[in-house]
């Protein structure tokens, strides 16, 4: 038989849940694009806390899109070309995120900007977005996890900064945007910037805790 929670702790938890109810109502049904910051991609504990935040948002009715790049420590073999880049970003980094999310929600699905031509990089680094695939996943209750890889103007593969990809996606989806501290200044003035080296930073920000 599991031990009972300490009465004081139980009261604190209950009070916290009641306190966030107005914000849950406010956020319900909204779309939020969140960039998984480098601390989250590099540290198992922070990734677990971050994915718990995203799971909570999903079950409280927030339509969340995650965007990520290759993380802070890119292996030297990525110099082998675009295919190697795709293998690392969409194969290794993305799979860890999707696996961690599915420990909390079982509803995460991975894709790159190539899928459905979601992200295309034109001349002058202009990013064009087709959000159709993302809307299909969001409407079915899924959490799209998007690797910041898209088509280039020359028909090749382009690796975008995660903040640039997320900014374009948020605009196309009419969504709020949450960036990590290392991307401060890389998005619009309306973007929220949080320190993802702090556990549960995303949830604390969105629910004003």
Describe this structure in words.
The protein is α/β, with parallel strands linked by helices and 209 residues long. Helix content is 43%, strand content 20%. It has a 6-stranded parallel β-sheet, with helices on both faces. The longest helix is centred in the first third of the chain and has 21 residues, at 7-27. It starts with 6 loop residues before the first helix and ends with a helix. The model has no long low-confidence stretch (mean pLDDT 88).
What strand order characterises the main sheet?
3-6-2-1-9-10
Which percent bin holds the helix content? 40-55%
In angstroms, what is the radius of gyration?
Answer: 18 Å
Structural class assignment:
alpha/beta
Give the overall average pLDDT.
88
Main pleated-sheet profile: 6 strands, parallel
Order of helices and strands: HEHHEHEEEHEEEHEEH
* Global geometry: globular
Percent in strands: 15-25%
| Overall number of strands | 10
Query: How many helices?
Result: 7
Terminus-to-terminus distance: 33 Å
Low-confidence stretches: none
